[in-house]
Amino acid sequence: MDTPRAGIRNDWRREGKTMTTVRNRTVLITGAGGGLGRRLARSFARRGAYVVASDVRLADARRTADELTGCGWAAEAAELNVADEASIRRVRDALDRAGRRVEILVNNAGLVFGGAFGDVPLERHCRTLEVNALGPVRVTHVFWPHLTAADEGHVVNIASASAMIGLPFATTYAASKWAVLGFSESLRDELHAAGCRSVHVTAVCPGYIATGMFDGVRPPLLMPWLKPGPLAEAIVRAVQRNRDIVRTPWIVKLIPFGRGTMHRKLFRALLRLLRVPQSMVSWRGHAAAAQELCAAPHPQPSAAGSTTRQRSTPAKALLPPPSSGALPVPENA
Description:
Blueprint: H1 6-15, E1 26-29, H2 35-45, E2 50-55, H3 58-70, E3 75-79, H4 85-97, E4 104-107, H5 122-142, H6 144-149, E5 153-158, H7 171-193, E6 199-206, H8 228-240, E7 245-248, H9 255-261, H10 264-273, H11 287-295
Parallel strand pairs: 1-2, 1-4, 2-3, 4-5, 5-6, 6-7
Helix pairs in contact: 2-8, 5-7
């Protein structure tokens, strides 16, 4: 296991006396078919975790799992739609049958639609909230029995720097990330109030990530593009040290201080000076992928108020069940 640097060790001691073990843990990552999710899968796998790479597009999840197994790491792929509870339960049931229990859950799946609020179709606003805000709630709730039964459980919610400030031309995206941050903090405080020290919650609030999801965006001043590889490594280290929140780059750490100490008009003027409100004006994003996600079938309520199951391919394991043994990988590989 990597020895923490002095500055990071202080965070670890402040936020938890124990560290989350990654080696030989089962990690479920949503949205693992590409971008940050795929990088997270690599970062966990190289430390000896068994990675369940899930995505709404099974082919993308398989590519990630194949990449990991090709390196000699332990992984499997699963089709999982965070907007469909039945899809999530199918993955959980498949893991139950294989004798696996999710101990680290990474709620990474998300989408974004840029544009003036009134010009963006209502269906896209609703879809953004379904995936970004309700998705982590659904997945965490379905896998809650796994997480609470584990010796160590950990929930990682990928929020955004926009979870702490408004983001014009991405109004619903920002709102969904505010919800993710609020969910993370509330769940963490609830666990602490109940005296539960075995389940930890980490919220991640990054700036713009160079994955293609934000194509066309002009990042604000002093906020460079984040590379998904180093960001994934930082997130895994934060999980190991049970950190409550990750804010990056450095200027994102100053947002709570600015909001809390500066007059509202002065703070907004500072944001304009840094070009935050204009950053999403020229957004193009993953237009084709976003369109496909928007066209995905939504669960429809039945007459009894329950959720109608959508037909989809069941989660398919690409590796044998745990009895065959996971490959031992050095923690600091």
